Automatic annotation (TrEMBL):
Composition-biased stretches (Low complexity): 13-25
Record protein name field: Inositol polyphosphate 5-phosphatase K
Organism domain of life: Eukaryota
Region (Disordered): 1-26
GO cellular component: endoplasmic reticulum; plasma membrane; ruffle
CDD domains: INPP5c_INPP5J-like
Source organism: Scomber scombrus
Homology family: Belongs to the inositol 1,4,5-trisphosphate 5-phosphatase type II family.
GO molecular function, one term: inositol bisphosphate phosphatase activity
Pfam families, alphabetized: Exo_endo_phos2, SKICH
C-alpha cells in the first residue's frame, strides 16, 4: 500500500520593507545609549536617574531583541525559462553547491518545461526530467524535496535540508492561469507556501505576457495572480498575507526606447546602468503602488534574453530580438500593521501577528545570472539570501525513534511520542527512509500510526515493523513521521544503522561474512 496514491489514512524585515532597517536600528540604539549617558549626568535626583536609566536600558534591549534575530538561514532561488529543452548534465554551478556557507533551502522556478501533450501526460505519471536532475543532485547532500507544483510548462520545486523537515509545516500549493483569457496555463503563476519555524513564507513562480508593447498587461497579470491565489489557511489566505513572499520567473519586462545598437554597445562595454532607466519593471515599480511593496537587487548582470542556443551570443536570427532582463527575482516583506488613531497608546507597539516578537530580516547576498548554461535562449538567474529569524518553536511536534537492533531477521520496534498538540490523524504514518532520500514518498516501507485512538501528549507509543518489510541489506536509515493534515514530515529520528540480514546471505546478496560473523 502507498499512503500517497492509495486512499490512506536586500536587508528588509517583517516590521518594514526598507533595505536600510538594520542601519536605522543601530542608529536608534546609539541614540538610546546616548540618552542614557545624558540622563546619568543631568539628573539631580538619584531616584529619578535610576528610573530613567532603567527605562532607557529597557528600550535599548528591546531594539537589540527586535532587530537582531538569533538564527540565520541561507536561501538559494533560481529562475530559468528552459524553452522546452532537456536539462544539462551538470547543474552544480547553477546550485552553487561548493559555496560556503551552504544553503538551507533551494527554490527552483522553471518556465516553458516541455508540455507537449504526450510528454505532459508522462510527466504526470512520473517525475519530469528536470525534477529528476535536481533531486538526484541534491539528495546525496541530504536535501529533500518538500513540495512541487506544475501547471503545463510552469514548474516550482522546493528543497530543504533534512534537519529542517520537522519545522516545515502546513505546506500548500496552488496555481493561476492567465493565458487565453485565463483558460490556458501556458502563462500564469504557480506557488507554494509553508510555515518555516513558525514563520509563514510563500514562493511564487510566474510567466507573464510576452512582447515589448504589453508592459501594462504584465502588471495587470501579476496583480491578478497575487489576488487570485488562495490558500486554505485562515491567517494567510493570499500571497501578500505571508510574512515573506518571493516572486520570480520570466516576467517578460523589456528595455524600452533604446535601439538594438545602443543596447548591445552598453552591454559589451559593461555600462549596464545606462539601461536601467528604460527597464519596464523598474519604471512600473515607480508608478504602481503594489509593485512598490516589492524589492529587487541591482541589475549588475547582463540581460538574460535572448541568446542563440549553446552560446553567449545575443539573438542573430532574422528577428534579432532586443536583449532584456526578462528573468527576475523580487521579494516582499509584509508591512507592519500600523495602529489606527482610535487605538490607545499601548496598541502602537504591537501587531496582530506577533511581528514585534518574531521579526524576520532578509538580506540579498547575490543577484546574478549564470552564463555557462546554453540549452535555452534564456540564461538562468540566481539570487541568494540570508534570512534571519527567531524560531517560534524548536521542538519537533513528534519524537520518533527505533528500538534496539534492526535487521530483516526479526520484527523491529519503533516508538513515537506526540510532543506538541497538532491535528493528528489515524491516517498519519511513519516511513523508513534511506539516508539521502529524495522526498516524503521516497520511503523503503511505512507503518500506520496507532489506529484505535489518537495519542495523548507525551504518551510513548510502540509500533511493530514486520521483518519482511525491512531491507535485507544493511545501511543507514532514518524514521519520519508524516502528518496527513500538514502534508509534511513533522518528526525525524536520528540516523541509525540496519544490519545486513542472514537472509541476504542465503539469497546470495552479500558475502558470507556478515557483520563480522562467519556463517
Amino acid at each position: 500500500m502507498d499512503p500517497f496514491t492509495d486512499s490512506p489514512r536586500q536587508r528588509s524585515d517583517s516590521m518594514s520593507s526598507s533595505a536600510s532597517q538594520g542601519s536605522r536600528s543601530k542608529m536608534l540604539l546609539r541614540q538610546r545609549l546616548s540618552q542614557l549617558l545624558t540622563c546619568i549626568e543631568d539628573m539631580s535626583s538619584d531616584d529619578e536617574a535610576s528610573e530613567e536609566v532603567s527605562r532607557t536600558l529597557d528600550e535599548a534591549f528591546q531594539l537589540c531583541g527586535r532587530y537582531i534575530p538569533t538564527d540565520a538561514f541561507r536561501l538559494h532561488v533560481v529562475t530559468w525559462n528552459v524553452a522546452t529543452a532537456e536539462p544539462p548534465e551538470d547543474i552544480t554551478s547553477l546550485l552553487q553547491l561548493d559555496v560556503q556557507p551552504p544553503a538551507d533551502l533551494y527554490v527552483i522556478g522553471l518556465q516553458e518545461v516541455n508540455a507537449a501533450p504526450v510528454r505532459f501526460i508522462s510527466d504526470l505519471l512520473a517525475e519530469d526530467s528536470w525534477s529528476h536532475i535536481f533531486m538526484d543532485t541534491l539528495a546525496p547532500r541530504e536535501f529533500v524535496k518538500i513540495t512541487s507544483v506544475r501547471m503545463q510548462g510552469l514548474l516550482l520545486l522546493v528543497f530543504a535540508k533534512q534537519i529542517h523537515l520537522p519545522y516545515i509545516q502546513n505546506i500548500q500549493t496552488t496555481y493561476t492561469r492567465t493565458g487565453i483569457f485565463g483558460y490556458w496555463g501556458n502563462k500564469g503563476g504557480v506557488s507554494a507556501r509553508f510555515s518555516f519555524y513558525g514563520h509563514m513564507v510563500c514562493f511564487l513562480n510566474c510567466h507573464l505576457a510576452a512582447h515589448m508593447n504589453y508592459a501594462l498587461q504584465r502588471v495587470d497579470e501579476f496583480e491578478y495572480i497575487l489576488e487570485a491565489q488562495n490558500f486554505d489557511i485562515f491567517d494567510t489566505p493570499q500571497v501578500r498575507d505571508h510574512k515573506v513572499a518571493f516572486c520570480f520567473g520570466d516576467l517578460n519586462f523589456r528595455i524600452a526606447d533604446h535601439g538594438l545598437h545602443f543596447l548591445r554597445s552598453s552591454i559589451n562595454s559593461d555600462r549596464l546602468n545606462l539601461l536601467w532607466s528604460k527597464d519596464q519593471l523598474i519604471t512600473m515599480r515607480k508608478k504602481e503602488p503594489f509593485l512598490q511593496e516589492f524589492e529587487e537587487g541591482p541589475l549588475n548582470f547582463k540581460p538574460t534574453y535572448k541568446f542563440d542556443r549553446n552560446s553567449d551570443t545575443y539573438d542573430t536570427s532574422g528577428k534579432k530580438r532586443k536583449p532584456a532582463w526578462t528573468d527576475r527575482i523580487l521579494w516582499r516583506i509584509k508591512p507592519k500593521i500600523l495602529p489606527s488613531e482610535d487605538d490607545d497608546e499601548n496598541a502602537s507597539t504591537s501587531t496582530d501577528d506577533g511581528q514585534d516578537e518574531y521579526p524576520i530580516l532578509v538580506s540579498q547576498d547575490k543577484y546574478t545570472s549564470d552564463m555557462s548554461y546554453g540549452v535555452s535562449d534564456h540564461k538562468p538567474v540566481i539570487a541568494t539570501f540570508s534570512v534571519e529569524l527567531r524560531k517560534c518553536f524548536d521542538t519537533p511536534m513528534v519524537h520518533v525513534s527505533p528500538v534496539g537492533v534492526w535487521s530483516a531477521d526479526q520484527d523491529a520496534l519503533l516508538t513515537y511520542t506526540i510532543q506538541e498538540d497538532f491535528m493528528s490523524s489515524t491516517w498519519d504514518w511513519i516511513g523508513l527512509y534511506k539516508v539521502g532520500f529524495k522526498s516524503a514518498s521516497d520511503y523503503q516501507t511505512f507503518v500506520w500510526v496507532r489506529e484505535n485512538e489518537l495519542p495523548e501528549i507525551n504518551e510513548v507509543i510502540q509500533v511493530s515493523v514486520d521483518k519482511d518489510e525491512i531491507p535485507l541489506l544493511g545501511g543507514h536509515y532514518v524514521l519520519g513521521y508524516y502528518s496527513t493534515n500538514m502534508q509534511s514530515i513533522i518528526g525525524l529520528s536520528a540516523n541509525f544503522q540496519i544490519l545486513e540480514s542472514k537472509r541476504a546471505v542465503m539469497e546470495g546478496l552479500v558475502p558470507d561474512n556478515v557483520n563480522g560473523i562467519n556463517n
